[in-house]
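queue> holo job accepted (pyridoxal-5'-phosphate)
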Amino acid sequence: MTDQSAPDREEEFAIFNHLESEVRSYARSFPVVFATARGAQLFARDGTAYLDFLMGCSSLNYGHNPPELKSALADYIASDGITHGLDLYNEAKESFLREFHETILRPRQLDYVVQFPGPTGANAVEAALKLARKITGRSNIIAFTNGFHGVSLGALSCTGNRYHRAAAGQLLGGVTRLPYDGYLGSSVDTADYLDRLLSDPSSGVDAPAAVIVETVQGEGGLNVAGTEWLQKVAAIARRHGALLIVDDIQAGVGRTDGFFSFEKSGLRPDIVTMAKSISGYGLPLALVLIDRKLDKWEPGEHNGTFRGNCHAFVTARAALEHFWRTDSLAASVRKKGNLLKSRLEQIAQKYDPSRVSIKGRGMMQGIDLKSGEVAGQVISTAFQRGLIVETSGPKDEVVKCLPPLVIEEDRLNQGLDILEDAIDSVIGGTVKTAA
Ligand SMILES: *Cc1c(COP(=O)(O)O)cnc(C)c1O
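queue> job finished
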């Protein structure tokens, strides 16, 4: 990005440039120093407001600093509530488990036990893979093209992205990659292919411990698995003695429709991984939900120092109580998801489908611009006009909208206006001067 005030900017970022590793990433797309945040907005140090359609990559589904969660946390801290409790029984965990059972699991008749791995999504995926291998005594895992499951070695083996895989510096094994729904076009049912490979003793694919799948591929470019395909994959896994792991780290917690992204499809995964928005406040917390019959862990067999973050338990419980005891949030996600879809369709309709098309589901939808370069220009133009939105997909070609679920419709429209203008000015030839 060219910037007339570059020398000033250099100074503003001096400590980051000097001391923070080159590995930093999002900061490069949005080069300002942020200070505060509220709801759907981030505020830079100089007071400039940005509308946030990135939301911690779906870690902030209820917006920045939601007041109900903030006051619960502030009260807990003020009363000297336990901050770090290893995996000791504590009141914060007790209240969270109770609320999770009453509000989420019981109404959905899901008989899961909850494992608290380390606090990141990758930690949850590692635990899920390890458990599936332990239960089945098999080592192979089936993962899909364009899947993203984190970047620690086990999770990275399941992740498709070449750039991330290359950084492993070693062979990533134990995973067989298969085409996701629609990967070979609409005329090829890739679930049939999976079934064929697992049924043929000479296919060369070892019997898998698990199939790991996202219902909507967040990082992979907003590819959506069809209900029928998901049900078929679940049935195939079962028939071949493999567990079904749904990685609901990005698509879950209301992002697509229900609390879980797989509710609509009637799936009953053996294991579910959750992280990102489960704490509701951006605090680190991950869960592995394990079918009660499959909880074959021995005490302490998979451990960690930061298992279950008490502050995150407090905000997670408050979020469930405030947003999930009734159907109103899910209903508003359906409504706003439809609004998002129709606005994105209107934008796409202005252009040839070979240049612009829409992808995704619910409140994780976006625009495929077929080119990483174009998408990069669009997000940088949008940023100059006050919108933070990121790209995803194998070539970073899909602009991915992840507004907070609680965003007001006006604000949602306002962000989409900025996105539309940015797209028009980058590819529509209706170049306007940047604000
Ligand atoms: C973000 C993400 C992960 C990894 O979570 P981290 O907290 O970054 O380790 C895993 N799976 C999916 C689907 C994700 O979106």
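queue> The pocket of pyridoxal-5'-phosphate is lined by residues 120-122, 125, 148-150, 214, 218-219, 247, 249-250, 275 (CB under 6 Å).
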